[in-house]
Amino acid sequence: MRSDGAVVCDRGMTITLGGPGADGLPKTVGVLREWQHEGAPTQLHPGDLGWFWRSGAAATAAAVRTWTRAGRVLAIGLLDGPGLLRLAIAPGAHRDEELARRLADDITRPERGVLPEGRASVEAPAGALVHEPLSAHGWGTDEPWTPLHRDLGEPVSDSVNEPVGGPVDGPGLRIEVVGPERAHAFTAVHRAAFDGSAFTAEHWHTMAAAPPFADARCLLAHDDRAGPVAAVTVWSAGPGRPGLLEPMGVHREHRHRGHGRAITLAAAAALRDLGSSSALVCTPSANTAAVATYASAGFRRRPETRDRYRNA
Q: Is the pTM of this model over 0.70?
């Protein structure tokens, strides 16, 4: 290893830790799109960067890390909060020994600028070799998450035999595709669905102006009597690739009425219309209500995953 921390590979190449900068973010999103394919492990999705972008391009660029070798991006990380790194790894590089050692070294050493000292977590693809050196560095496993998947080659329906009427209709609710003039209504439902949310119309406009949103839709579900009751954002990674639901929430005053299932069906239908091959979502396994909601909308559970964590 050189004094600057770059790992020297047996092939005479180096793995370099860096970041894309604001100007390089669209290219990074494009790389993440290329890495999404059916059968891949659950990992960072371009929609995750799109959702983070509500804080602005500068903040998003500051939160992204890249690991490259010979000009090829091998891994992309998003600092999704002060102590959480979410990783995606290039196809064919999940078992790359040099990459795994470099990732673990950079993640473990705060001076490298990836994660700070103290309690921290890493969301890495299941089966990736990086889990082994992280474990050797003392990183344990955290609470389980449940990934869920729905094949969009199947009809998206509100019952066993009846297809959803129209591209984004759901049972019993009116589904609106949100445009700029309705950002205030969409963000109000989001704040009512997630405790501590500070999502504002200004944040929505920032997110909607970013490159990833060109392949995204925000949906708002209306009850004729109660008004807006649920919201979801869906992110396509391009035709023939898995799309993502991030986030989905039901207004706290209108839960336990099937609205979560309805907006999830609408989300799946919207992704189908965007050309996505499937719909993905991931939720803590302890949130049994969320797991049940997605399952009721035709999503199938995949094997649980666990983040790696380091105690303070």
A: yes
